[in-house]
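Consider the following assembly input.
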Amino acid sequence: MTGSHLRVSIERVSHRYGSLGVLEGIDLVAEPGRVLVLVGPSGCGKSTLLGIIGGLIEPEAGRVMLEGHVAEDCLNVMTPVFQDFALLPWRSVAGNVGLVLGALTRAARRDRIREVLALTGLEAFASAWPKELSGGMRQRVGIARALAVRPACLLMDEPLSALDAQTRALLLDEFADLIERVGTTTIYVTHNLSEAVRLGHTVAVLSRRPGRVAEIVRIERPLAGRDDADPELLAVQARLWALIRDDAAAATRERVHA
Amino acid sequence: MPEICGPVPFRARGFAPQAIPAAAAGTLIGLVLLWQAGASEGVISTQFLPAPVSIFRALVQLARSGELWRHLGASLSRLAIGWSLGTVFGIAVGFFIGVASWARSPGMAVVSALFPIPKIALVPLFIIWFGIGEGSKIATLGFGVFFPTVINTAAGVDAVPRGLVRMGQAFGLSRAAIVWRILLPGAAPAILSGFRVTSSIAIILLVAAEMIGAEKGIGAFVLQAGNLYDTDNLLAGIVVLSLLGLTVAGLLGMLERVLLRWR
């Protein structure tokens, strides 16, 4: 679907909210067509970093560089998928997808909506209101909306965290399949390590606030062949947990004391 | 330890009121019948409070003579123009206060200073400014509708989740598209609920303004009837105002059902 080939480089990015340092000297690269997963303890600045990458938060220092080429039909280079779906309740499923396709002609918009709704299994729900959909279906709409603009880079901020475990497991498989088929550069924030090893080609572990890159773990296996019970992936997951555990415990204590 | 044996009693009864349209109609009809019975039996003095039947006859007579339509037409035209002007300007200013930093503090300061002034007290001033004709009456209505509309609109814009605005920005929507497609529909419930308040305010101010200086209009008609101790016609005028309020509320209800069907 995508003809974009985009490399996203995060260069020496630091950020603070008032006197609270959130990120410090982050250097990371999201390779074209690959998935970079950001994990770390609560409050380590994962979502802030994603906001900076998406141009929604201005970093105090550093920059995010884009390098490569963007397909002609790409309507939005850096495209988010939100944790809370961010659907307009007064627009139907098709209306929510069509909202971001204002640059297209009416006919092209209709075709694009039909195409992405088919891709995400939502054809039968085009005229449904968001309130009529389950959480998993709403997130599919969020994905359909993101794919409709032919993004060069997908920015996914804990897209499964608001969903129940069964829906999460099903959507995770669908994400893996979609990401591999579409081949868009993806940056995925999660606190769930099984999601990280299921989807990530590169997993960047951030330390406790102010977040720094503590470790980068690479997983070479193709997304299609990954299985939750795979001993190799379970070993990676255990390694990630070992890297995060102390910081996560400290962050939890910090929250309790606060 | 006491023994227990029996089904678990259901305890979640009540605290869930439901609308019963038949009860609403029945209450109104019952009150009118009671009133009619009191008047017929001499319990209620018809000199001060005419019987419903007399009021109905007066209404029919007013409708047949064309007097009702002459007064009602004048009132409706003032109501439509005054309410529309106050609403359009109120929504525009409320929107600026809701979205623009430069408008927020100055706008709210002006609104806070002027909103509490009873608008009826300004009628003499409007007569000096706009004359005794239509201008002063429309200005009274418009002014009275403007401030609550500003407040409701600004509150409605503030209540739109910022996450939706950020979504629009993240997808590269223009500022105009964010205003028209996200903020305006998002603020619509607050704006529409404000319409119920402002339509009532407009009817109150309409009658007040027509009582101060008008030959035509329901307010003027009620005042004339009162001066002549013509209580049948006075009450007939009040019934027309009540029906006007009910009709406006019904129309707004329909508008809400159409525009807010997504809720």
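The radius of gyration of chain B is 24 Å. Ask yourself how this observation constrains the way the partners meet.
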